[in-house]
């Protein structure tokens, strides 16, 4: 039994050519384009927001000096926790989050 190459069973696409339809250029597609009337307007607020974001992006995410001082205070046992300040910050956060919600 002889094994035939698979290429001999696939019909050749080079020999077949689809007919050209009238009104269509065979080399390029005909596209109708309309003028683009899109525009963009940047307000003063958006430019201020962009400057603030750019400024924040240049700052480090972590204040390494503050972290080091807290680590040292914890190691020495001199770090004090102020529960009133923590409660105040939680309250401020809650007020901000309820103002933002619809």
UniProtKB/TrEMBL annotation:
Annotated region described as Disordered, given as residue ranges: 1-21
Family from the record: Belongs to the FlgM family.
Domain Anti-sigma-28 factor FlgM C-terminal: 38-90
Keyword check for Membrane: no
Known function: Responsible for the coupling of flagellin expression to flagellar assembly by preventing expression of the flagellin genes when a component of the middle class of proteins is defective. It negatively regulates flagellar genes by inhibiting the activity of FliA by directly binding to FliA.
Entry keyword set: Bacterial flagellum biogenesis, Cell projection, Cilium, Flagellum, Repressor, Transcription, Transcription regulation
Protein name: Negative regulator of flagellin synthesis
Annotated source species: Methylotuvimicrobium buryatense
A single GO BP: negative regulation of DNA-templated transcription
InterPro entries: Anti-sigma-28_factor_FlgM_sf (IPR035890), FlgM (IPR007412), FlgM_C (IPR031316)
